[in-house]
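Please go through the protein record below and see whether the fold suits the sequence. Record follows.
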Amino acid sequence: MTLTCVAIGLDHRHIYGMTRNMLAAGVTCLGYWTDGTPETLPGFQKRFPDLARFDTLDQALTCGADLALVSAIPADRADLSIQAMRHGMDVMTDKPGCTTHAQLDAIKTCVTETGRIWSVNFSERFEVPAVTRATELVQQGAIGQVVQTVGLGPHRLNRETRPGWFFQRNRFGGILTDIASHQIDQFLHFIGSDTAEITHAFVANYANPDDPGLQDFGEVSLRSDRGTGYIRVDWFTPDALPTWGDGRLTILGTEGYIELRKYVDVGGAAGTDHLILANGTDCQKINVADAGLPYFERLAHDIAHRTETAMTQAHCFTVMDLALTAQALAEGSQP
């Protein structure tokens, strides 16, 4: 069975990895549609020169694809996902998959009524080989029972390349809804819990007073029946860093810990995907270059066989619910 996909909305660069990795998983892309000319369009066309552009959204929705890849403006992703599901497609959306609880409720209703898959590509887990290997080590019991995660998600602002919606709270959804959904996903994944409680959430705009809609700092504390987690996200990556952010994850277990330096190891080894393991018998850096990115092939399998090997639907819903709840708590409103 040859699966097909269509890209709907190209407003975030994550569409590059979403498309590339589904093609690598053996899925055929039938083309793309985007509203206007987002700054990501030239990069998409350069990477995928053979893909045709649909003139209208309706053409993209009725092209007969099995999967829609959605990376539109965050506030628009829920509606596009729902339209795609109503047209018989499963969906992989960029994070955040939605920006309000009302949108999430509408997505849940659509999934129930259509039986479609709605999957959020949490790329800081699914597109990082080091996380693949860390998952294997945790499952093998290398650090005992996981009791805490600390996830750091710094990003570079890149002000000169950011579109207007990036600075509008109602369009990007807030820094916790957006970036911190990655770390919430990783907390639940590694701690092994089905849900969690947000115990603290905070957002601020420390360095960008001329953009009151922007939040450049956020933090979250959460706990579950198995342990606790701390998350810090920001837009403060300095210009001298050779990549967009020094993303890190520490997984603490009862018999050791794993530290991931995902994108850079300042003062250390070159390249990406640095994994450090320390337990009762090992204290070493592990080469994880060959760990792979199984999410994409697993999602293709799920589409073909109606299984949940890439990520359960319940987990996907819970991550977005917790991110939205943290955002509301930080801003002083009820979730």
Remarks:
- The first strand starts at residue 4 and ends at 10.
